[in-house]
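Why do we care about 3D structure at all? Because function follows from shape, and shape follows, mostly, from sequence. That is the central idea of this module. The next example makes it concrete: a single protein chain, its amino acid sequence, and then its structure expressed as tokens.
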Amino acid sequence: MAYGLESCQCVRGYHDPLVRSCELCCKIPGDELSCKSSFEWNLPPYDVPDLYAKPGAPCDNYNGYCDVHQSCREIDPSGPLATLRNLLMSPEGVAILKKWIAEKWWSMLLLFLGAAITVVLSVRLLTRRNAKSFLSTILPGQTDFRICNIRSSSRSHPSCLVTSPSGNSGHIPLSKNNRISRPRISAAPENGWV
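And the structure:
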């Protein structure tokens, strides 16, 4: 709606260049016969700059699209996407699919069962497990914790040791102020030799 004009699609004449269909075209609102290229709208009060349509814009009355070379490419009506759309979205295609599912219900059952098994196996095999660090983790507010030997001879009853962190305080001293002070080691020797 720039310059008070509406966009439209240019129709390429017999003697027009191939890029004519991909030129940016405008028309006076409500007037279908005034659709002209931006190359022709250079008189005041309009003075529209010479522009081409963006790649992917429709052209040739929605029967094609503009490519990066400003050439109108015709849409192939028998292409793979059109074939797939006609197969899945047409009433005949849906009827064929329903008939196949009704006749081969067992194959759909196997398909869903296989998908479920694949998901379960993926979760079981691809998740990271670190039982040793999990069993020795101290949770907030916990006053004692277990350290278990998960490699013990009896997997159903691992040997565990119950202990309490830092005496009776019930918390772990993780802050910088509670660390043990250690003597600093200076970089220069004490006798002054460098």
